[in-house]
Amino acid sequence: xxxxxxxxxxxxxxxxxxxxxxxxxxxxxxxxxxxxxxxxxxxxxxxxxxxxxxxxxxxxxxxxxxxxxxxxxxxxxxxxxxxxxxxxxxxxxxxxxxxxxxxxxxxxxxxxxxxxxxxxxxxxxxxxxxxxxxxxxxxxxxxxxxxxxxxxxxxxxxxxxxxxxxxxxxxxxxxxxxxxxxxxxxxxxxxxxxxxxxxxxxxxxxxxxxxxxxxxxxxxxxxxxxxxxxxxxxxxxxxxxxxxxxxxxxxxxxxxxxxxxxxxxxxxxxxxxxxxxxxxxxxxxxxxxxxxxxxxxxxxxxxxxxxxxxxxxxxxxxxxxxxxxxxxxxxxxxxxxxxxxxxxxxxxxxxxxxxxxxxxxxxxxxxxxxxxxxxxxxxxxxxxxxxxxxxxxxxxxxxxxxxxxxxxxxxxxxxxxxxxxxxxxxxxxxxxxxxxxxxxx
Length: 441
Prior knowledge:
Blueprint: H1 22-29, E1 33-37, E2 40-43, H2 45-64, E3 68-69, E4 75-77, H3 78-84, E5 93-96, E6 102-105, H4 110-120, E7 129-138, E8 153-163, H5 166-187, E9 192-195, E10 205-212, E11 218-222, E12 228-230, H6 231-238, E13 248-249, E14 252-253, E15 255-269, H7 273-276, E16 279-281, E17 287-289, E18 291-297, H8 299-310, E19 327-331, H9 338-352, E20 357-360, H10 366-376, E21 380-384, H11 386-391, E22 393-398, E23 403-409, H12 424-438
Helix pairs in contact: 1-8, 2-5, 2-8
């Protein structure tokens, strides 16, 4: 775990001039991301840690329903996209190599995975199957904006289920609904699963996962009976161009809420298996088309949604499951002083106890250190300074709500306390921090 004196965390006092979304402003200011060009973003170390928290949650839930992780290329032959009729999509990057062969940079991987399915699925015994990967996507976005919310390059987890028939596809779809619900419960976000539109994906049905927040570009329709849908779906059903709160839909007044689309799932049916020849032989030796569904989630959008939902006027306030570090430890005191030696002991003890800790050991004033800790938004801030030694307690602040928690006992002579976790007080420190951490949202 890093010391801030040697960690790449380039914080900024002011947000980018063009930034409007809270997540754009704060993720740049907190040193999580940096822009390289329009719609092209670099994830810096602390930001990438948050991104990978989302990835790990998604991976665990996909594996739990039998998903098999793989990796397919971003650079693909244009021919498979021509066969499915999607080569003409305006946002699809198209290029030619030195031999003048037509290629694309994939914005999604239905064509690629169906190409492989057509080669490897032969019999009904090969079904059902779930394949997934985390891969870069490229999109010729006409108006990149809002930081990592609308970009030209991003990582997406896309999964694909393959089944014998419509009933099998529905069963796989329901398993993914359960997995996605668990993913979002684990992230700590506020979210809705809503009726969606199939759009350019095609198929026979779709749902979207929405995170409500002011920066959202989508509009969610909600009713008192629990119906939720993307506003586009409701507009299409009513045959109207715009919706307003209180308008009636299916006999009920509607409520409208802005939201970020963080995931989507589609029942594809035979939309891709037919043009790409993904067939199998059933129990009677008859050739049948494979039935498919696809399931996407954008880790970057989940990260941005978390910033949008929980930030305050001081900075980011991460949900526990997504925080880059569990603890932000602030040392007040110059090297060689008793308070710095005590902070070093706390740091070593937490690391030995498996507590992921960012240690601010820089030679800066307390105000600057506290401001940067609140900007970065780790769930717990521990402070060790001269007052800590006088009181015999480590100061504790919970980031959400900036609440002060009871102090944690600090030995007067840390070296005599038994080193790191081997000492009784060291073990007590780790237990106290762990209990605090587990009780956080």
